[in-house]
From TrEMBL, chain A:
UniProt main location, coarse: membrane
A Pfam cross-reference name: BPD_transp_2
InterPro entries on file: ABC_transp_permease
Protein name: L-arabinose ABC transporter membrane protein
Gene name tied to this protein: araH
Family: Belongs to the binding-protein-dependent transport system permease family. AraH/RbsC subfamily.
One of the record's GO molecular function terms: transmembrane transporter activity
UniProtKB/TrEMBL annotation, chain B:
Cross-referenced InterPro entries: AAA+_ATPase, ABC_carbohydrate_import_ATPase, ABC_transporter-like_ATP-bd, ABC_transporter-like_CS, P-loop_NTPase
Chain ranges passing through the membrane: none
NCBIfam families: PRK11288.1 (NF008442)
Organism of this sequence: Pseudomonas psychrophila
PANTHER family: ARABINOSE IMPORT ATP-BINDING PROTEIN ARAG, CARBOHYDRATE TRANSPORT ATP-BINDING PROTEIN MG119-RELATED
A UniProt-annotated Pfam family: ABC_tran
UniProt keyword terms in alphabetical order: ATP-binding, Cell inner membrane, Cell membrane, Membrane, Nucleotide-binding, Repeat, Sugar transport, Translocase, Transport
Domain of life, per lineage: Bacteria
Ranges of residues in domain ABC transporter: 13-248, 248-504
MF-aspect GO terms: ATP binding
Protein name, per record: L-arabinose ABC transporter ATP-binding protein
Amino acid sequence: MTIQNTSLPPGRKPLDMRRFLDDWVMLLAALAIFLLCTLLIDNFLSPLNMRGLGLAISTTGIAACTMLYCLASGHFDLSVGSVIACSGVVAAVVMRDTDSVFLGVSAALGMGLLVGLINGIVIAKLRVNALITTLATMQIVRGLAYIFANGKAVGVSQESFFVFGNGQLFGVPVPILITIVCFLFFGWLLNYTTYGRNTMAIGGNPEAALLAGVNVDRTKIIIFAVHGLIGALAGVILASRMTSGQPMIGQGFELTVISACVLGGVSLSGGVGMIRHVIAGVLILAIIENAMNLKNIDTFYQYVIRGSILLLAVVIDRLKQR
Amino acid sequence: MELNALTDAGACLRFSAIGKQFPGVQALANISFVAHPGQVHALMGENGAGKSTLLKILGGAFQPSSGHLQIGEQELTFKSTAESIASGVAVIHQELHLVPEMTVAENLFLGHLPARFGLINRRLLRQQALELLKGLADEIDPQEKVARLSLGQRQLVEIAKALSRGAHVIAFDEPTSSLSAREIDRLMTIITRLRDEGKVVLYVSHRMEEVFRICDAVTVFKDGRYVRTFEQMSDLSHDQLVTCMVGRDIQDIYDYRPREHGEVALKVEGLLGPGLREPVSFEVRKGEILGLFGLVGAGRTELLRLLGGLTRCSAGRLELQGTELKLQSPRDAIGAGVLLCPEDRKKEGIIPLASVAENINISARGTHSTLGFLLRGKWERANADKQIKALKVKTPGASQKIMYLSGGNQQKAILGRWLSMPMKVLLLDEPTRGIDIGAKAEIYQIIHTLAASGIAVIVVSSDLMEVLGISDRILVLCEGAVCGELPRDRANESNLLQMALPRQRG
């Protein structure tokens, strides 16, 4: 293909409609669905429901931020659901035994970081497929969660721990604030740091990234380690909201997170992804789920609908690329 | 002339006012010409002139934004590759579309394997495959996996596949770019045969000698526009054609000027590693351009990959300006200032979905960012613009995705990546493969400027003229070992080839 038009002034370009759509269409769709729900469903906009919606977004949103990095680098992580459960359990158990919120949260985050590190090292250094690696750690960590918890929920009695899940700042629940901070931080990280750009390069063309001098292995390990850590953070917040660590929680959560990312426009094959994709995907999934709950749609049907939406989104995406 | 018995034999291929618009780019504008049956019709032009786009339209991979194709009386617009194939068109692409892990026979009949109730009739498959390959590539065993064939053989399989579908129009997109001399000869014979059978043969190549050898007509493109068609090759001189393509004389394309050479920059002693049969030793001085020549499989690329830290050496020693250089990874080489431009741009060079600026800045940004990881937007923009300007990368802007650029401009962007870094030794693997003459000349100029500034350059190339044109000294490899060395003034085509040819053993 030729590019003849070299005389374009730098910087200013005519608005490229296609590019604009590629970048923003899903976020606009999320907005449209939101407006539609506002009009069609009573109570949708009520403060109580908005709060519930925000909380529903928070767990998926936080984990999706770092899943974006896994996907953008051409991998994915199935262990995040188990990490969420296990970190909650670890926090609860450590707090029960030491009565220290600080130790409990630290232990939970440390556990997540460790799982992520193991994932990253096995994938980057031993070159094991990410699907297999995280499928294995998903089961291991789930098992550990049950073992630590002795098979049942572990209650938390430390009041100060509940700040993470139930606290408020300026009238906004803390989990929602943390989610917003995560969106901003990881969005910034992706675009304005070598780490973020290297992540995209690795997903876009691993060979070229290696030859260009990108420290591919280290970047991959960091991606998974951070994902483990942030997964654990989401788990701590969830445990705080439920005032207990529950080993059975978050089954299939990893797929929800990946669905949200892909729905928003993150490519499964790597090299394509922006934080606004993630925000859009998370919003759309959460709003639709919330709307279905308000409309009292049976859970069984909800599965079918959610799957169909995901399928539709990726099919549209493929058609767009034609 | 013996005409094929197909119904549309004898039909012309006519391009009528074909245009193709990509977002922000007019790749083709108003292309009209006719290719006659029983002729080999060359399409020439610099890279990015629109030849590949036209072939993709012919093959049904792209749909034209305007205009149409015509075979005989039939007006056609292909909506898919399948439609194109069904209409008797076969495009043999540079990247061959074969399944490496399947056998030759399976590849030949992929999509219509002889089978009953889903059970493949192996005997019939083999028999039909043998028939197809007969006279084309008799030595190929249909049972062989395609992965085990040479590139030239794979191409023949692709041609056999096209013929098996009764193709009347056969288009070759730079078919010889990775073939050995012998394989090229055979391909030429086959193309001549196709021509004599009355097929329409389109032939895209940058190699003048091939075009003059087998083509009967040439159509020249420039910047997505039709320039002119020469119906009589005999009236046409080499220089005339080049001038028509670039509007510039061919003499000064290599732009060689003698330079002073400084002290030894890189010293290689007894290097052994994958792809090398015997220990390799040589040195290259500051400001020197060392050409590495050899046939495919001689170990040139492998040697360069060892020097670039991509593969690890099993023995030997490297010395960079007097200090030992130990390479564990490309990062070590890059850190030391030994920079490699890989052979396969698409696979190992560019990050296709990323912007031109990203592709330029990726390596150097580490040292130009705050605390080693916070990008400095000002430097990012300034450096990308600087390299784009200095290397004359043709792009609508630094934020354009690099995959939309032509090969020559992608290569320049990768050179820009290394020019942003401290450089001592530049390793170039086939720096101008698949690049048009105009961009080639620009790349040679860049190489010379770099050498003149005291950088040692090692160039691997299978283009004999190129090696002779730009090198100060030429090292010849053969079957994984150094088999000779020639200074510029003593090297010529015949003694280089003589050296590069494997000796008959035992």
